[in-house]
Specification:
Radius of gyration: 29 Å
Number of helices: 25
Strand order of the largest sheet: 13-14-12-15-16-11-17
Oligomer: single chain
CATH architecture of one domain: 3-Layer(aba) Sandwich
CATH class of one domain: Alpha Beta
CATH superfamily of one domain: P-loop containing nucleotide triphosphate hydrolases
Structural class: alpha/beta
Bound molecules: adenosine-5'-diphosphate, magnesium ion
CATH topology of one domain: Rossmann fold
Strand content: 15-25%
Largest sheet: 7 strands, parallel
Length: 721
Amino acid sequence: MSDVKVTLGSPVTVLYGIGPEAARKLAKLEITSVYDLISFIPRRYNDWSDVSSIDQCEEGQEISFLGTVTSAPVRKGFKKQSPVAFYVSDGSGRIELSYFNAPYIIDKFMVGDKIFVHGTVTYYGMHAQIVNPFCEKAASADELRLVRPVYHLTAGITSNMINKWALTALKLVKNQIPDVIPASLKERENLCSAAEAYEYVHAPATIAQAAEGRRRIAFEELILLGIGMKYFMTTGGPDEVAPVVVPSSGGLSSEAAARWKTVVGNLGFKLTGDQRKALTDIQQDLMLSKPMNRLVQGDVGSGKTAVAILSMAMTAIMGKQSVLLAPTSVLAKQHYDSACALLAGSGINVALLLGKTKASLKKEIKTQLKEGEASVIIGTHAVLTDDVQFNDLSLVIADEQHRFGVKQREKLLISRDGTDGVNAVHNLVMTATPIPRTLAMVIYGDMATSVIREKPAGRKPIMTHFLPYTDGDDIYNVLIAKLRKGEQAYIVCPRIDDDSETVAPDEYYFDDFFGLEGQAPEAVSVKTMKKRLDEHGISEKYETAVLYGSMKETAKLEVMERFLSGEVKVLISTTVIEVGVNNPNATMMMIMNAERFGLSTLHQLRGRIGRGDKQSYCVLCSDNKTERALERMKLMCECSDGFELAGKDLELRGPGDFFGTRQHGIPTLRAANLFTDAPLAKTACDEVNKLFEQGGEEAKTLMNNIGTMFRLRFADKMGTL
Ligand code: ADP
Ligand code: MG
């Protein structure tokens, strides 16, 4: 082991004490390399450095004190589970320390040992004691690290373990961490060195020192993201050329105009002002040979699909091909149906390409794409991975972009052969989950944005209610009342079955430094919910079905079809229905263990109802009564603006809360706070960019360093975003 050179990029298993099992668990926290480990920033700290005395003990209070062991630890009883206990005194008083499941304590302390104790005081009748306290031999508090990091955790991994490993790793690679912050900026912003920063966050002497370290790492993280995206990820450069799709002068031929009229006639509704505006933005971009790089942000239900398909129709009428990418096959199929309806009679051929499409059919479709017979192509990312050739691909639209890795987009971009001097396509990204503007600028650089705020006319706001339980007659009665009216319902659960993991367990980090895991209420699973509906006689009267990600593609599509046709009345599912699904007759959504989902996810889920003219209801069910959970439920009930909720979501999550950032299309940020640090990051990135423009040795080294670190920190993970 010792002769292995440990580098930042080494897998965590090079470290002593991390075997394959621990590595597998760490991977769940997105820690695979040594660098991942040291840049895994604690989410908060316990400060135990405020030392008092035993006579200050009050029921329920956390206390730290120094004392002397006055009785040898003994087992208090004959059972295996009997606690081991001993007394400690400090001159002001005497208290009992009691340990469950810790037989090693018997040999750890002797009468006369000077110890430091931290724990919560409980009374057992008149008798004060501290159960399972932190306890170390020490004559003074200075000998110990009393600011204790608390990390995001997963089952089987404690903060203590991560802390130990991170410090071991840091010792080995400290001198290899390249600096990615220009000297001038470091001086102006008063930032410490990278090595210092990592020491400060994992082993701080004070809370203030931890904050200093975090700030430095956050800065670095945002520079890596901002600069890295620009220089190492985008394929676009100033000399890239995309096809001119729409003629900027001369107008349309009468035939083209007639076809466009047919398409618009098929719409069946009037576009909203914002839809119209977005479409005009896109049309103007398509008049240029500069590749379009546009983001369409619109709340759920704002009608982004129509904008996408109309853009594709425009492109097809001008004789060119376009692709619409959806994150799931269910959604791709639905877009395909919409496109077929909208383009009927216009002479535009639509093709659907999914991963599960039969080989023979796939081959046929591929020929159509190559020959240019199909001009509107809809598919999942299977379109990207297969060797699909196009005749004249000009526009690529990614729906719900946050489900795609940047790498995948990149792959499509380079699939033009470039023989005609045209090497790029126009790019349109559609998302319902907005990110703060400053951050968008860091991440997307010069991406233009069209915002659809206006909702189609005649929509009734969804009524959202909170129920403080996840099982009970009320739940089933409310459901039955809706079903009686012939309407349909979704029930969303945070996991598939009782053995599977839950989504976003962000309320339940295993919070304890010693790995005494928090007692979280059980999460309701899809299968449990199905059973309950059976038991309450609901399934007998109304067709119920389940849907989740790991089902076979064909089975998923079939269930969805039966739900859309109205045959299935209640669809019990995981968050697979989160994006895009459109069934206007579904007017009820129940979300079990709602506290386990982020606000943006809840809003996105809720966006599946309220799509027709009937009043829709969303019921949030949760047994969790922590303040944090209740605050979020309240927000959901009061606010129906996705933009506002997305902002709140990021705000409430705080730095490094990576369970939620994916929702926003942002790679995991570990140290940076999306709100407070983004403006500074913008300044920092501008400064780095200026330095690059000036050129020279310093710029070159910096560029190299940023490239190396960006790959370690972000690029290698993007494909799996
Ligand atoms: P999202 O922005 O969430 O992707 P969709 O594109 O799925 O929204 O649209 C939601 C529903 O609204 C669809 O049923 C669609 O046909 C309908 N819709 C879209 N635009 C309008 C409009 N201007 N007027 C009325 N209904 C519309
Ligand atoms: Mg959509």
